[in-house]
DNA sequence: TGGTTGACGTCAG
DNA sequence: ACTGACGCCAACC
């Protein structure tokens, strides 16, 4: 994939990956960035998520940081939306952190690489 | 046009 | 194990 073409493509890549996240699974910004070949650009993935507000099809609640912490919950319509969405998908959330994060972790570089 | 910020991650101390 | 600093790239001021 030619992700280096321009920023538009990079954002689009992020969107595509996030859309492919199965229900009840979560991934991290770094994992997405890694899959796109830009491990160090994880911050830009965050920006993509910020811009993702214009894209209702993108389940941004399934994207958290490496610690499984819901760092982006404050960017949702309500601070509880993210947690509630995850809970409704069978993911336990405690203190803004996903329990058994590793268990629910969905790595695009593994799942999509096949 | 240049400096700062941000939904992050990794390395060094 | 914990804390601080750096890098990275796009958007904002």
Task: Describe the fold and architecture.
- The chain is mostly helical.
- The protein has one domain (7-103): Winged helix-like DNA-binding domain superfamily/Winged helix DNA-binding domain (Arc Repressor Mutant, subunit A, Orthogonal Bundle).
- 40% of the residues lie in helices and 7% in strands.
- It contains six helices and four strands.
- It has helices spanning 7-19, 29-35, 42-51, 81-88, 101-104, 108-111, and strands spanning 27-28, 63-64, 93-94, 97-98.
- The strands form two sheets. The protein has a two-stranded parallel sheet. Strands 3-4 form a two-stranded antiparallel ribbon.
- A hairpin with a 2-residue loop joins strand 3 (93-94) and strand 4 (97-98).
- Helix 1 packs across helix 3 and helix 2 crosses helix 3 (42-51).
- The protein is globular and about 30 Å long.
List keywords for this structure.
disordered N terminus; 7% strand; mainly alpha; 6 helices; two-stranded parallel sheet; Arc Repressor Mutant, subunit A; DNA-binding; 114 residues
